[in-house]
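Dissemination and training. As part of the outreach component of the grant, students in the summer workshop were shown how a complex can be specified as a set of sequence lines and then modelled as a single object. The example used during the hands-on session is reproduced here so that future cohorts can follow it. Participants entered these lines:
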Amino acid sequence: MSIVSVQNVSKFFYRHAGQMLLRQRLVHLFRRSPRERFYALRDVSFAIEHGESLGIMGHNGAGKSTLLNIATSLCTPNEGSVTVNGRVAALLELGSGFHPDLTGAENVRVNAALLGLTRRQAGERFDEIIEFSELKDVIDEPLRTYSSGMTMRLAFSVAINVDPDILIIDEVLGVGDQSFSAKCSERILKFREAGKAMLVVSHSLATLKNLCDWGLWLDHGRVARVGPIREVIEAYEDHGLEQAVANGR
Amino acid sequence: MLSMWNGDPLFLLQNLVLKDFRIRYRNMSLGVLWSLLNPIVMMGVLTFVFTKVFPNPDRQFPVFVLCGLVPYSFFTVAWSTGTTSIVDSTGLVKRVPLPREIVPIASVLSNCLHLLIQILLLLFLIVAFGNGVNIQWAWLPLLWVLEIIFVCGLSLITSTINVHIRDTRYVVESINSVLFWLVPIFYSFDIISKRYAEYYQFNPLAAMVLCLRAILLHHQAPHPGTLLKLAAVSCGMFVVGLVVFRRWKHTFYEYI
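and obtained this result:
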């Protein structure tokens, strides 16, 4: 059984969906003008088995983040289906729910609960999380006194210690300084060796090549290519070159 | 909707409420004193107007007013924060696959410390005005729980509407200021015509004030009919709230 399976998924948004005042609602109610659709994803399919990892690439606005949000059930596809078997930890935006006025320790507890840890798990892993972040000395200071690198380190430490079956990473690697970054990569590799699945979005092709076995290239919401990571990256890079040439450079 | 979040909802709720408490009270130099100041000032003003400006011999008038003010001010504050809760926590709703019902409920519950302080003030003044503690006080926890359930249900509905129509919060604010006159805060329930009195008790806020006064000022158990209406409307509102919220929560991603 696939751990994540996405089948023929399409997702569209309406243009001008940002207008949410009463006046516009009423105008819309009486005029019934058809709203223009904008497809973020069209007919995307892929599946990941245990121990596999998939790297997703594509230019800005190609639908990468929408795809991850659909895989984590944050938004529902208009067509197609998504099945996920296991506990997901999504590193979509590190430190969601962090508040500057709370101390590091308090933020860790809130974040752990948000990411789905139970009271017992949160208690057990608390020391491990602090240990990993290397922020023990300042953990009782308010978060607003932290540097942005320190905040990110704390957030990453919570997320990686949730111990999920599927890890979803959206452009959040390269957190903190070099030694911490290396520590994160090491931890992620260990995670892969444990037979867990990973979905990674990144613009850094080197990162993808390191972390993933499979690649998926999204172009304007459609799958341009899917296959072994090296082949997909090559095709993606060639395409980039061709475009640069076509633009006259 | 798939549920991919398999954490502990109660643990999360507790953490979110605690977070709100900490943020709110850490940034106030006088801390909980602010929770006391507002009802005392309102009580003083209303007492002055309705005993001195309009003569009224009732010596109990200050606590009579406070029995109305405490549930009213909790209701208005909790409802308006509940209404804007989803739009205010975009970061959570769009980025973390948590059960979204928790967001408005946590925002209502985070007003409860404030409420507790005001209830203690009310009970203290009740005793100070010569009304003893009596066995009927045992009803109080149930009454407050019912009011909280009612506000949670209402907030689930209005927070959903507020995502789609951002004017909702202003409508809520207007309703709140009208309610000050519609709920028997500075007048007695007796002046409402017998014809409407029975139906009027379906307003949970009015029923709440009625029950509080029966218990605290007249040392009587709340009228069973009133209590039943309060319970039915509160629980009913909560169920409707959940149904409405679940029906539309999948649309939140696109609209906030």
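The interface with chain A takes residues 1-8, 11-12, 14-16, 18-19, 22-23, 26-27, 91-92, 94-98, 163-167, 250, 253-255 of chain B (CB under 8 Å). Students were then asked to discuss how this feature might be tested experimentally.
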